[in-house]
Amino acid sequence: MAVLTEEQSMLRDAAKSWVQEKSPVTAFRKMRDSGAELGYDVAAWNEMAEMGWAGVIIPEEYGGSDFGYLSLGLVLEETGRTLTASPLLASALGGASAIILGGSDAQKSAWLPKIAEGSAIVTLAVDEGPRHAPDKVSAKVEGGKLSGKKTFVLEGMAADVFVVSAVSGGAIELYLVAADAAGVSRQKLSLADSRGAANVTFDNVAVSDADKLTGGAALLEKTLDRARAGIAAEMLGAATQAFEITLDYLKTRVQFGQVIGSFQALQHRAAKMFTELELSRSAVEAALTAIDNDSPEVPELVSLSKAKMGDTFHLVSNEMVQMHGGIGMTDAHDAGFYLKRARAAEAAFGNQAFHRDRYARIQGY
Amino acid sequence: MADFGGTDLEAFRGEVRTWVAENFPAALKGKPNPMAREERGSDPTPEQEAWRKAVGSKGWGTPTWPKEYGGGGLSSAEARVVQGEFARAGAYNPIGGMGVMMFGPTLLEYGNEAQKQEHIPPICRGEIAWCQGFSEPGAGSDLASLQTKAEDKGDHFVINGQKIWTSGAQWADWCFCLVRTDNSKKHEGISFVLFTMHQPGVEVRPIPLIAGSSPFCETFFTDAIADKKNLVGPLNGGWTIAKRLLQHERSGLTGAGGGLGSGGKSIESLAKEYVGLDEQGRIDDPDLRTRLINNVMNMRAFQQTAVRAMMEAKGNASPGNTTSIMKNAGTSLIQERQEMALEIMGLQGLGWEGDAFKKDELEAVRGWLFGKAFTIFGGSSEVQSNIVSKRILGLPDLTQSK
User: Fold this and answer.
1) Which of A57, A134, A314, B149 has the fewest CB atoms within 10 Å, i.e. the most exposed one?
2) By the 8 A CB rule, do B276 and B284 touch?
3) Predicted local distance difference test score (pLDDT) of residue B272
4) Catalytic residue at B249?
C-alpha cells in the first residue's frame, strides 16, 4: 500500500466500510439476477455520488474534490473487491478525464458538475471491434455529420453523453455526442461479466466545433491511459479479494483428514499468487502516482500496470476456481463472478499483449 | 539520532564533500571495489589501503551503526548523504562483506557488550573478513538438521564436523558458525559460536563449480577451538539468531535494483545488437521479443516493489517478511534474463574461453551458470515459498521448519 495522506486514508476507509455494508458481492448477484437494464444498481450509484466519489478527479470549481487519480484508484480498488458495478470507472474516470484534459470552459461547465454529482453519465466510445485498437478509427465526421459504429462501450446503455473518436480532416478527433441526439442508436450487449455494455451506432449525427474536444489523437491516448490505470486499480481490488477468499478456503476445507492448505502443492501456488499481487500493487500504484505527477513516464507505467495486473488477475481467478474444486464451478459460488470479471477487465482498454507491445515500442524495441 | 532535514543536512553534506575531496585517492576514481569477488586474491594497492583506513576510521562504511562500536552513528538521512557524496566523487565504499551485510547487524542485536566491543570495530574498519558456517553436506534446505558438534570443555568448545558452501572461507579471518550442542533436540540444540579461521583445526578446500572457479568452499573442523566468551546468545539458543541473520542475508541478496547479476548491458540492447530490429523497429524475433518484454516489465515491477517496501518501512530498519517474496521474484527474473542473454547470442554466448569471444559473451556463459545458485543459496526458492505460506499467509506447516 502506497504511503497515503490523511484525506486518502479517510477516503479509502469510507469506501471500505460502505462496500462491506452496502455493496457486498450478494448485491452484485442480485443486480445480475434482476436483469437490470443498465448493468448497475442506480440507488447504490446515487449513494456513491452523494459521498463525492464521482468527483474525486474533478476540479473544485466544477464541483469535485480534486483529490487526484491515486485517490480515485483507492475507491476503485475497494469497489472492485466486491465487483461493485457502477459508472465510477466509465464516467467519473473515463468520461471525466477526457473533458478535464480536452474540454473548453463551456464543455467543462456543462458536464463536469453533472458527472461529479452523478446525474450525467459520460463514457468513452472509442473502439470499433472486439479487440482494443484505438488508433484504428473508421468513424468519420464530414460536412458536420458523424457516422460510424462503436463497440463494447462501457455503461453504453446508461450514458447521457458519448466521447466519440472519429476521423475529421484526416486526423483523429474526439467529440461529445448526446445519447439522445438524432441518429444515435444503441444495442444492449449481454456479456458474461453482467456489466453494462452496448454497441452504439452514429448515423449522420449533427456535430459542430462546439462539440469537439481539443487534443486529437494525443488527447485520446492520455484519456485512455487514465482509464487503463483506473481499471487496473479495480482489478487489483478484485484480484486481492479473490485471493483472500481462496486463502480462507484453503484454511477451512478438510480432505484426507487435514485442511487442504497444509498441502505444499497448494501452499506454493498460494505463495506465488501473493507474490504476483504484491508486484502488481506496486505497478498500479506507481502508474496512478505518475498520472498525479504528470510524469512523462505515464504511458509506459500505465501499460506496465495494465499488463501486469491482467496477468495476475487471470492467474488468481483461475486458481480461485481450481482450488475451490466443484463448488467453484457452481453459479451459487462467487468464484465464477471473479473469473468472468477478470476476462472482461483484461480485454477492456487493451489486454496484456497490447500493453506489452506498447511498452516495448515506447522503449524503442 | 533523529533525522534532521534542511539546512543542517546541507551543512553535513558540505562537510562530507570536503572530507571526500581530501581523503579519496584520485587513482581510485571510478574503480571497482576490491572487495568484489573477481578482484579478490591479489593484495590491495597502497591507495586502496589508504581509502579503507580513512573510511574505516570515520565509521562511514557502516554509517548507521553506533559510534561506540566504531560505526558512523549517523541517521539514515545522513547516511544517504554520505552514500550520495561517495557516488558523486566516483568512490566505492571500501567496507563490506559478510561482516557488514549479515554478521554485524545480527551481533549488534544479539551479542553481549564484550562481544560487540571485540568484533564490531574491526568490521567497521574493514580489517576482518567473516565467513558463514551454516550449511553442511547433510543439512541444506533442512538447515536445522546440522551435525557439526561442539563439546563443552569448560572455558572453550571443541568443534568437529564439516561445513559446505562456505563462501569466502579461503579469505576469511573469522567464522560465525552454527554448531550442535544438544543431540536430544533439533532446533533447540543449536548454538551460535565465533572462532578464528587461523588455527590448526580448520581446513578449507575451494569447490570448483559448473561455472569454473568459485568463492564456495568445503570447511573441515578437527578439534577446532571456540572460546566460551564467543558463544552468542544462550547455549542452545542459536536458531533464533540464525533466522535473523538469514533475513539480513536475503534482503542483502535482493535489495533494490536486484543486486545479483545486474551488471553489464541490458537485455534489450543485447537483443538489438545480436538480433536486430525489423522495419517497424521491433526486435526481429517475435517469440523472443514477447518473452523479453515480459522479463523487462516484471523486472520493473520488482524494482517498484523494492522501492515501495522501502517507503512503507521507513523508520523500521530491519528486514521483514517481504524479503522472502523479493528473493523468489528477483532471482527467478535474473535467471530468466541470463538464459535469454545466451539465447540472444546463440552459440557465441556459449564460449568458454579464448579470443574468439568478447568479454560480454564469456561473462554471459559464466553468469548463466553461476546464476543457477541464486535460487538455491540463502534458502532455496522452495524454502522461501514455505516461509511465505507459513509466516505471511498463515497456512499450516508440515515441514517442521521454523
Assistant:
1) B149
2) yes
3) 95
4) yes
